[in-house]
Amino acid sequence: MKAKPKTSEGRFAYEGLDRVIHERARLSVLTSLLTNPRGLTFSDLKQLCALTDGNLSRHLSVLESAKMVEIAKGHERNRPQTVCRITPNGRKRYLEYLSTLEQVVRDAAKGATEVQRTDLMRGLTPREA
Questions:
Q1: DSSP string covering 104-122
Q2: d(CA 81, CA 30)
Q3: CB-based burial of residue 5 (10 Å sphere; 0-12 exposed, 13-18 middle, 19+ buried)?
Q4: Which of 8, 32, 81, 93 could disulfide-link to 76, CB 3.0 to 4.6 Å?
Q5: What is the number of H-type helices and E-type strands within the chain?
Q6: Of 91, 98, 99, 41, which is closest to residue 68 (Cα–Cα)?
Q7: Could you list the pLDDT tens digit for every one of the 129 residues in the chain?
Q8: Residue 13 has what DSSP assignment?
């Protein structure tokens, strides 16, 4: 979803903030996977995102159900290994989400600048303004 055009109705609704992504742990998981396109092992992902086994497993399940990540279970050196990768759909949705977040930051920065300008004008006489 792209950021909606600016209108007075729902101006700050930010429909592009995907609820599946807009959660700290899942945002961390997707960011980690986006920056590692070949995928990451469960252990590496757990460490990068500072999550417990159960917590990471639950968030991966949500992302897998949303078709944003794929999970491959296999073996390496006779040890079980789980590798997680972001899907093309996951990449697309994540980048759209970031685009909306960038709009949030732009709007907030603009609002902060306007507040600062108003604060600077406060206390000045009309001649000084």
A1: HHHHHHHHHHHHHHHHHHT
A2: 19
A3: exposed
A4: 81
A5: 4, 3
A6: 91
A7: 555 555 556 778 888 888 899 899 999 999 999 999 899 999 999 999 999 999 999 999 999 999 999 999 999 888 999 999 999 999 999 999 999 999 999 998 888 776 665 555 566 655 554
A8: -
